[in-house]
Amino acid sequence: MSFDFSKLLSVAWGGWTTAWPTELLALIWLGFLASWVGASFWQGQTKKQVMTLESQRYRLPILIGGILYTPFIAELMGWKPLWVLGNTGITIAAILSVAGIAFAWWGRLHLGKFWSNTITQKEDHRVIDTGPYGIVRHPIYTGLIFGMLVTGVAIGLVTTILGAILISLGMWQKGRMEEVFLSKELGEDAYGAYCRRVPMIIPFTSPR
């Protein structure tokens, strides 16, 4: 008996991802993922990084959240959206999501060769506190969390909302782990002072 891959694809890629207008949000995030992965080859030489087992503290909620974000669980359970925004509402959500993604890209481009998908110290690593990093310490997470929460709420499924929350918690946990790591590697006087001066994820709030 041959395996029908098309059936698996229809389950993993269906529901809100293929029904207009929420399909627009799916296309935006697919475009983001493709560009983000494509740019992952542009980064500096790693000097030191957090061990793999430790990283599961933030990887696990992000993974589970990502699975919930797909239409798979909602389709399996037969759950329907809690609300339907319509074309205008989804268009507004799309604009806000793109704004969040753009802020995240600004952070990544400004970080340059010091960016990494994992918690690392790069060669010649130093504290970056200009551009978006003068607004928040983790602009990439700020932008992605904002965009994911907007998208999750706009879709209106319990699974997408819960998925967005789990992804946000995972990113927050990763941010905290990064700060402990960088404070040790770059020095409390340098990175610690930065943490006391600039908010972590939410702009215009009290640092720490």
Automatic annotation (TrEMBL):
The keyword Transferase applies. GO terms for biological process: methylation. It is found in: Membrane. InterPro entries: ICMT_MeTrfase. Keywords: Membrane, Methyltransferase, Transferase, Transmembrane, Transmembrane helix. GO terms for molecular function: protein C-terminal S-isoprenylcysteine carboxyl O-methyltransferase activity. It comes from the Bacteria. The chain crosses the membrane at residues 20-39, 85-106, 144-172. It holds the Pfam family ICMT. GO terms for cellular component: membrane. It is a multi-pass membrane protein. This is Isoprenylcysteine carboxyl methyltransferase (ICMT) family protein. The lineage of its organism: Bacteria, Pseudomonadati, Pseudomonadota, Alphaproteobacteria, Hyphomicrobiales.
